[in-house]
# Entry
Amino acid sequence: MKAVLLCGGRGKRMFPITEDKFLLHFLGKTLLEHQIQMACEAGLSHFVVIGNPENTAKIKQITRRIPGIEVEFALQKKALGIAAALQSAEPFLRGQLLVINPNDVFSSSAYTKIIAAAKKTSASSSILGYQVQEYFPGGYLRVNPRNELLHIVEKPAPGKEPSDLVNILIHYHNDPKELLHHIETVRTTKDDVYECALDKMVRAGHKIKVIPYKGFWGPIKYPWHILKVMEYFLDNAQPYVAPSARISKKASVEGKVVLDDNVRVLENAVIRGPAYIGANSIIGNNALVRDYSHIGSNSVIGYSTEVKHSYIGNNCWFHSNYVGDSIVDDDCSFGAGAVLANFRLDEENIQVEVSNSLVDTGYDKLGAIVGRGCRIGVNASLMPGVRVGPDSFVGPQVWLRDDLAANKMILLEPRYQVTHNETRLDEGKRRELLNKFRG
Amino acid sequence: MKAVLLCGGRGKRMFPITEDKFLLHFLGKTLLEHQIQMACEAGLSHFVVIGNPENTAKIKQITRRIPGIEVEFALQKKALGIAAALQSAEPFLRGQLLVINPNDVFSSSAYTKIIAAAKKTSASSSILGYQVQEYFPGGYLRVNPRNELLHIVEKPAPGKEPSDLVNILIHYHNDPKELLHHIETVRTTKDDVYECALDKMVRAGHKIKVIPYKGFWGPIKYPWHILKVMEYFLDNAQPYVAPSARISKKASVEGKVVLDDNVRVLENAVIRGPAYIGANSIIGNNALVRDYSHIGSNSVIGYSTEVKHSYIGNNCWFHSNYVGDSIVDDDCSFGAGAVLANFRLDEENIQVEVSNSLVDTGYDKLGAIVGRGCRIGVNASLMPGVRVGPDSFVGPQVWLRDDLAANKMILLEPRYQVTHNETRLDEGKRRELLNKFRG
Amino acid sequence: MKAVLLCGGRGKRMFPITEDKFLLHFLGKTLLEHQIQMACEAGLSHFVVIGNPENTAKIKQITRRIPGIEVEFALQKKALGIAAALQSAEPFLRGQLLVINPNDVFSSSAYTKIIAAAKKTSASSSILGYQVQEYFPGGYLRVNPRNELLHIVEKPAPGKEPSDLVNILIHYHNDPKELLHHIETVRTTKDDVYECALDKMVRAGHKIKVIPYKGFWGPIKYPWHILKVMEYFLDNAQPYVAPSARISKKASVEGKVVLDDNVRVLENAVIRGPAYIGANSIIGNNALVRDYSHIGSNSVIGYSTEVKHSYIGNNCWFHSNYVGDSIVDDDCSFGAGAVLANFRLDEENIQVEVSNSLVDTGYDKLGAIVGRGCRIGVNASLMPGVRVGPDSFVGPQVWLRDDLAANKMILLEPRYQVTHNETRLDEGKRRELLNKFRG
# Structure
């Protein structure tokens, strides 16, 4: 059985995170590596990766590092959905297939369940149905009592769901040719060609078995979804301190914490897990990392910085900052006193504008989302939910209320009054204060 | 003997503190409870409380919790001074009375002294005379050589004081009917009816004994007087750590410190007494509480916050703040980097505008005074002596130089320059810095 | 042999540092005292100090404290170079002379080398030639194969240097009369009379021996050169903790650190040497002093302050500041949250305007340079390389991009929007947050 990884799509709602979702790092590895590892553990070793012109080189570099797998590469030139992706890879789609969206995060049981089910059933296909507890705006699966697919209903209105099963993309296909054939017959202008093809297969008499799944499912649709995925990985990590990591005796490392190679934790620093600190990173004097935080590699959480429930990329530098419920991509630096605020004065949920409409993030505590290569000046204040585009600079003392596009520099234009200063300070008073201070 | 507590007045100069002064909390109890406790220790158990329509329910709730006392309630509908208060309570004023202003703070010796004196003397009344060391703008007591009152002189000019005895309101009256009778005969448009009645009693041949008193007297006329009263309570507290309090082994608790129930002191926090930390409050990582500070209940002195010589109410949240010589009422939150400055650049005394005139606070170190329910944004700067009215919000990065009324929101209107950013950062330099940092 | 110390000049490029360079303190002593001490160790005990009207009293006060030396004072009324200085001191210039510029810092080997060489040679004069590794804009020494001076070439273009030997002012003269005679014959409008006189002596047949020197040479031409000199002194100091110094058991003192009399290091402070802390100074709770930092006497590095590679004068106060690669003269105070930034957003070298032209400091990490008697308000941000003139005040929240002259006060003129605040906070939410925080 081959696993087909759909790596050709582009996230449209992920600004300012420009990296493909499956290339985000968790616990020191890309999400792609985690997917491949889970697939391997479920018994697979042959992969077809469908990439796009921008990411294929990176993907090859990553997959080359993984021992014991065989990978074929296909190129999807335009980002036109699952069906187009599969058509791009047509020459490689022989035998049984497991089609996977590597941008969503599942527990390994998703893989083992569908493979086990596929082996037992005579159905043409088996697809995973996520059992939702509350409304989710996705494709719902109408099934018969034997859990066989009848129809996929795209985004029904709340209350109109045909079942509690949402279609998530870990799909087993016994006969790819049949699937591709049905894809070719679909006539639609929307991007649900693949789902229409499944419907057509059902109508043509093929059985598509729905495998209910209740484990973790972490779709990354908006950038703040990274936090949930981060929590999942931290919850499932094993506490670990690399032999090369060095922790000051005056530091505190509590709870479930992973310290990767060469990490240094300096005096009076506190890491209160769950937390992950990537290779070569430094947790500086008096720094506090707490409540599900994930720090990439080669980063410095410098002196007197608090990182709370945040995802920090590689090569990032902080000192004397507050970073709450924030997402910071690689290669960013923050001047002393810069604050990533996470809570509105009115304590309301944080909303973010996406494609000209406001999206409620569902969080009342959410900080900034900062793209890669940004620099934030000293004493700047980033408001909850603000997004800073990649390679942009935010000047010192700026109160950033609105999103900043990529490749921008925003500077304050303050007005000052400069006058003659008559005051001379009282040396006696100063000496007295010092003595009082000394006690 | 009944103690009559005058709880009906309203502080006119206490903005932005809206709570009645006797309802302020010290060491976990209202000032009212402290007053009643001292009266009980001096042998009293019957109380007449004269409240107003706004506070009577609260007072009842408080007095109900106190075992072994009997309380009668009278209602003063308008805030028209001591005489009107006593007239409101006329039906309850039977037998010997001890009339007390519960808004001023005295040591328990004030109670025991006047009660002991009242038992020994045949005078109609006994009143406490505070022996001042320097001029105080109050009512001075002219007395004869036997310390019997001749006349009360209201606010004499400095140098014109008839004695060193200032009238403070712990007054014993042997015959309330006689007092009420004289009150009725006073004709004045000012609010000194009660004092005029005492003068009349003297002229009518009644003896009013003046009991000199040198112990603590803490009148709360302006909000910054709360600091002096706080110091008094902290000086007189016994060091205590509640059994349910938890102190990290890496924290330091030094000097006279009271930690109430369930207090938590986290790693590397330092509490340098005298200090009081109220029930359920948290002193966070690296926080420093020092030099006479008083934290209410359910408050969080979060990460990297310094509180110096300040009175903090209940349910307040700080993180990464400097709070110097400040007063913060209940239910306030402070964003990271917000500073309550306590020292003018020119090191002059802090002055505050009250009723259109500047009042010298007498302090060269005084911070902000923040009413209840306020929120202060990240990196905001509150200037020394600034008062923030209740339920007001101060935006991020605001430099608050002037008082803010109640129910206001103040936001900065900054101007920005946004340009294209050409700079790309040098990865090699960053790597080099990290290596240098690692040493 | 007499040592002649040229103390009459005035640094023109040292703004905002107004103190004479040789009066700057290092390791608790003025540079002048260090110079005299090195001269004494090399065997000298007679000094001629040529001062100016402003500094002579101070110099006398300092030299009086030094036991075992004999000092004669001459007064240079105008600052017209070395030759004029020597002429001012003519009556004292008898016997052999060692002419020293006390504003440059040399290692003691410079003294011992030239004195040893002077004793051995029959030359009229011996002068030190600093062996440069790269181009330095100074006077180069053209020599013959026996290292005898042929000619001094003032500031040759790079690549046009006649040797790798730069003239530095530790010059031995066997016959001062001869030198003074040649000085008198020079006719020039420039300030190189002394160098011309040496050239003349050579042309007249006198031998001037050049002694090559490779040890430390720290000229202080611009204020940021103080950092290099500071590093030199710290590198050459012996680790030392005064018996009267008190270090909290919870503090960390690592590396080569000198703690002078009565220094106090409070809980959780970290000093990572090389570092010097002057007498009576306090390193407060959680403070971090690191990477070659030099703190004067009677200063307070207060709560949560980071001082990195900085020179701090006497009587300075910090709390909750970041001070990176900065120079702060005596008697300065910094409000909480003020930041002395040390790194441009674009990571370029820091340039400073001197006499209407930009000078590249050679540093990509350089903070502010603050003259004596300044006060910096809370949450102010001083940009890299900014210079604040003495006795100037920088208001709270000011973003200081440009230099500020002496005796100025700069205040922000912000614009605010004040509106009615409708929001009332949710007590339940707050309680829930507290419980979550308590874990």
